[in-house]
Amino acid sequence: MKLKKQVTVCGAAIFCVAVFSLYLMLDRVQHDPARHQSGGNFPRSQISVLQNRIEQLEQLLEENHEIISHIKESVLELTAHVDGQPVLLPYRTPNGSWVLPPESRPSFFSISPQDCQFALGSGGQKPDLQMLAVASVLPFDNQDGGVWKQGFDITYEPHDWDTEPLQVFVVPHSHNDPGWIKTFEKYYADQTQHILNSMVLKLQEDPRRRFIWSEISFFSKWWDNISTQKRAAVRRLVGGGQLEMVTGGWVMPDEANSHYFAMIDQLIEGHQWLEKNIGVTPRSGWAVDPFGHSATMPYLLRRANLTSMLIQRVHYTIKKHFAATRSLEFMWRQTWDPDSSTDIFCHMMPFYSYDVPHTCGPDPKICCQFDFKRLPGGRINCPWKVPPRAITEANVAERAHLLLDQYRKKSKLFRSKVLLVPLGDDFRYDKPQEWDAQFLNYQRLFDFLNAHPSLHVQAQFGTLSDYFDALSKRTGIIPGLKPPGFPVLSGDFFSYADREDHYWTGYYTSRPFYKSLDRVLEAHLRGAEILYSLALSHARHAGMDSRYPLSDYALLTEARRALGLFQHHDAITGTAKEAVVVDYGVRLLHSLVNLKRIISNAAHYLVLGEKESYHYDAAGPFLGMDDMRLNQDSLPEKTIIKLDTSPRCTPSSGLGQALSLLVNSPRVRVLSEEGQPLAIQLSAQWSSATDMVPDVYQVSIMTRLPALGLSILQLYKSFDSHSTLTSSVHIHLHGRDLPVRPREVFPVRIIPATSDDFCLDNQHMQACFSGLTGLLQSVRRAGEEHRLSSEFLIYGTRSAKDKSGAYLFLPDGDAKPYAPKEPPVVRVTEGPFFSEVASYYQHVQQVVRLYNVPGVEGLSLDVSCLVDIRDHVNKEMALRLSTTIASEDTFFTDLNGFQIQPRRFLKKLPLQANFYPMPAMAYIQDKQSRLTLHTAQALGVSSLHSGEGGQCPRAICNWLQRLLEPRTHHCSQSKQGQDNRPISFPSLLSHMTSMHLNAEVLAMPVAREKPAPPALRSFRPLSATVPCDFHILNLRTLQAEDDLLPSAEIALILHRKGFDCGLEAKHLGFNCTTSQGKFSLGSLFHGLELGSLQPTSLTLMYPLGAASPNSTVIHMDPMEIATFRIHFE
């Protein structure tokens, strides 16, 4: 009561802050261990009895584990709702360190021992080809191979096909980039629509003709603009096997920078469109243009029930080696797979490119003569100066034999007598004349070849699946199974080089601003999907869906497609022209604004205490934006909450315990939903190294957030500063004459010229910095000091014709230290919840923040960099971390945020060849420690020396976290260096750190000032905790028959993470238990009853078993991604 009086006396505005936990990985998991049997010398009857007893004990232990988990959860629930406890404030010790009061809620970390076995397991049979081992033994000598310059001379015997004739499938295709030199819209208007219109006409002229198409972004736009009759014709062509939709994603995604959430999302968007509009399910993958290939893609395609795939851009030395050993076709298996459940059949194109000169055989001079678009008189010709000739009765025999020679030579590189010959290039078949030239001339060649049995060849047009089906038939297997005698491969195909030392490693960091914006949009899309699905389900349950803005679904679809479009291999890569990049940026920003609106609309409904009072007003939304971007290339500006206005509310969203808001007054008080005062850290907002922003203050609060939910905080203006703890600031000027204008609220100490080193600490670690540079020098953790220094470097580019660019990284040698004209200004801020060091150089600003809070944030160092090197020509900036970790030549990078790939520094390769993609994390380790670098955007990384990690150049604005973890010897999982098993996993803490970094907190001020806002309540959607190695990847409302409206069905996509138990996990400050892969979904969502649960393929095109409302307990293996079609009662 006294508290309420104080609020009334202050007469201040009250604010509510709802905090939505975008990323979830909280609380429980387990997986079924492999039970090894050992016969020994015991009689079988005794062994059987022992096995039964052991299994009974295991069952009892499992039940006991579950009971303890439930008890812990109950304790959490009880302690979570204890009201009226007095506020305990952090305090400062005599040595200057801040100490937090003990937490009111206990935390625990309890991992089932069985769940550690996956990372320790020996796996199944070793693959025939392991890419790490292949790269280690290849010479990479780039010898001249003759007409096949990057290969070798191919010979054959004329009678090689006498007993089994050669079967040739020529596959016409047109590669359509959804943006590159022209924008998406411009390409569609100028070329793509004409390609597709001609396709319908020309395929119908001859039933023997075939064509494949992959980019659904273009196809759907064309579909919206064609007649009902033309749509029917397309369906007939697909049904008749003349037209095949390959892969079927929204785009052909980049595989280096894309995050697996976005890769899956664009695949679902494409597949759902195909199923709804054409009724077709893709069977084969087609990836001719991504600049290197990730092992994540075959896994996703296999989970989507595709059985085969094709890739093209692989290092020319690897292609040569695979061709020489006839290993260009293989079963691609995941490194962790103990059997063959992840296998997918893969065809690697052997030659330089996917254009016609490099697809019929090894000699491009001859193959170019069979690209009939280049007939004399056209706009393009053959660089080898021998033009094609139209096929006539007079020359067909000679031309057919010349082409057959190429076919035969190419077929000698493969293990079967079935041959794939793509026929196409970028934006081909855009004019009817080309359709006629290619199809009529090739048909004359086929007719001749097929009419002469002595040639032992059968040639025809085919689709990609026609080829794979014929191959399966020849080898006597069902499509999707391993053909006898074909190799099994694991690993990936980075980094890519197309010739000489031209390594395509520059695009890992090109246009970094947009790589960052991509990840921001992804986080917002996931948050919007989940909140929209929950809000709409609750509104339907309450019979209020007619009052909910269903129109938000159209905005959600648009955002899915904008994110999907940006996964294109010339978009997120940064390799498009400037005008095209701006077009992508406008699309991303437009969708980002719309997603914020969807999130705020959903949050509005979910936090209302009285749902009947809900009223949607498009013109005057209840909640505002958390931040604003003025333009597509602008950095975000956080919303400032005005404490001196009428009462309003401000919901926010994110994962973690530290929440920061901007307010317009230092006289601020924060209460929990129950009215309990919360301790806050008040800090300045800076516009430069020495200038504070007037009348803007940063308020930092420590709070626990409900998983996937919304939490209410109250902010109001108050002169009671009992719970306000003000940050202190030291500014090291290093002799520079700069004005410092401190404000009376914040004590600022000016240090004109000293260069003494200094340290910051929290309850877990101490970080020490150079007083001269402001850069990190070392970290002390658990009583042990580890050197962890950082420095900025500059790479130049070579002076020859070929220079570094959007695609290539071609440095002029080793990096040189960054040498600014003046020493940096170093600003040190210290407070109870975070302390930070901001170093301002001429071209880069770096902020290293140490959080003093329990949980993920307090266990790592948070680093942000803002880089501006526009006045540098042909220069690139990099960040190097140096440690005492004895990592030797091995380091580890992630693939698409999904899995870890061990790497090895190869001295035989040029410097640029040793850089790899880092979409989410990279680490180095030895027997004692592991250092992980987490990133909030795609970057490139290498470890050029033992103990070093280098972030690739070009980063304009990025956020990183450095996590140092001690390793325990008794269960260290990394087999690299022990039996050379190329497999490694992050720790659970590392998984959570990565998700936390990619889940930015959103703050949405209540926009309405009058009348006073209604009562708001926290929204806690989950009635049970989720195992902490389970991740709810998405909760995606599916489309109704009307494109613009949602259906009652939702796609629940789960990912069970594989993790390493061999890293120390003590006092982590968050709750975590595991359940051996079991997860009960029946009562997971509070207030929503699960009506049906249908396991499906990844993209929902194939049901996997019958839907059952009774059985709602699922089991997933580590690393598995699974999709469920669910329906709430």
UniProtKB/TrEMBL annotation:
Transmembrane segments: 7-26
Protein name from the UniProt record: Alpha-mannosidase
Cofactors named for this entry: Zn(2+)
A single MF term (Gene Ontology): mannosyl-oligosaccharide 1,3-1,6-alpha-mannosidase activity
GO biological process: mannose metabolic process; N-glycan processing
Protein family (similarity comment): Belongs to the glycosyl hydrolase 38 family.
Gene source species: Gopherus agassizii (Agassiz's desert tortoise)
Cofactor comment: Binds 1 zinc ion per subunit.
Residue span(s) of domain Glycoside hydrolase family 38 central: 502-588
Top-level taxon: Eukaryota
UniProt GO cellular component terms: Golgi membrane
Family matches, as SMART domains: Alpha-mann_mid
UniProt pathway annotation: Protein modification; protein glycosylation
Chief subcellular location: Golgi
Any Pfam family: Glyco_hydro_38N
Membrane association type: Single-pass type II membrane protein
Catalytic function, reaction form: N(4)-{beta-D-GlcNAc-(1->2)-alpha-D-Man-(1->3)-[alpha-D-Man-(1->3)-[alpha-D-Man-(1->6)]-alpha-D-Man-(1->6)]-beta-D-Man-(1->4)-beta-D-GlcNAc-(1->4)-beta-D-GlcNAc}-L-asparaginyl-[protein] + 2 H2O = 2 alpha-D-mannopyranose + an N(4)-{beta-D-GlcNAc-(1->2)-alpha-D-Man-(1->3)-[alpha-D-Man-(1->6)]-beta-D-Man-(1->4)-beta-D-GlcNAc-(1->4)-beta-D-GlcNAc}-L-asparaginyl-[protein]
Gene3D superfamilies recorded: Glycoside hydrolase 38, N terminal domain, Glycoside hydrolase family 38, central domain, Golgi alpha-mannosidase II, Golgi alpha-mannosidase II, domain 4
InterPro entries named in the record: Gal_mutarotase_sf_dom, Glyco_hydro/deAcase_b/a-brl, Glyco_hydro_38_C, Glyco_hydro_38_cen, Glyco_hydro_38_cen_sf, Glyco_hydro_38_N, Glyco_hydro_38_N_sf, Glyco_hydro_57/38_cen_sf
Function text: Catalyzes the first committed step in the biosynthesis of complex N-glycans. It controls conversion of high mannose to complex N-glycans; the final hydrolytic step in the N-glycan maturation pathway.
EC number(s) given by UniProt: 3.2.1.-
Compartments in which it is found: Golgi apparatus membrane
Keywords of the record: Disulfide bond, Glycosidase, Golgi apparatus, Hydrolase, Membrane, Metal-binding, Signal-anchor, Transmembrane, Transmembrane helix, Zinc
